Amino acid sequence: MQNRCQCLLIVLIILSGAVVGGVKQGLAQTFTEFVYVADNNSNNVSAYTIDSSTGALTAVSGSPFPAGAGSISVAIAGSALQVSPATNIAASGIQGGAFSPTSFNYQLTSTSGSLNYSISGIPPWLNANFTSGTATTSPVTVTFSLMNVGRLTPNTYTATIAFTNTSTGNGNTTRTATLTVNRGNCKDGGWRDFVSSPGPFKNQGQCVSYFEDRREDRRDSEQKNDRKEERDN
User: Fold this and answer.
1) Which of 161, 160, 60 has the alpha carbon at shortest distance from 111?
2) Residues 109, 137: one domain?
3) Residue 162, SS3?
4) How many domains does the chain have?
5) Are residues 46 and 97 in the same domain?
6) Which residue of 42, 69, 101, 185 lies most exposed, with the fewest beta carbons within 10 A?
7) Whole domain around residue 200: which residue ranges?
């Protein structure tokens, strides 16, 4: 009977949020997502999660828990962040030309109730429609779109984007973002593919001249750096 009274006291603390028998307010707030009930005809304790929006109760996995004559400890994790799909971001294109795909969608949900999240590690060539917010059991869509890719030099660019559950820390995950910028090809009509800077080009000759000038500029710059290193040595 004493154990059951203690459990009922915990229920009252959780539901009211008041200070009872010297229990601190902060303790009551820590467990506001759960309710524990002493079963009337057994030595079991049932545990439920509380939906913060509707107040609906959902039995915790494994509930009811056998209490016996002594005390027991029940560890229950808070709401977890879920991010789908599990695939990473990957896009490619030619320097100054078109890239594909241009956008990527991810759905963020909470396993129960609601939680706050943040998104970090976004590279300068990607834009997210928002980087923080609240996730519930209904999916919220985050869209990543390519940006500022027109002047990137040929290379492979990578970044790690972090999705963080700032409420409970459960379900933190990452996605890798990879952008491949290929060297432009002016031949066989390739100059027409440069739809953004440094294009559009009027013809193949203008395209070839542009990249030849760029190569000359890089060569001159490298030679200047070599001469400077020789003087410094």
Assistant:
1) 60
2) yes
3) strand
4) 3
5) no
6) 69
7) 190-232
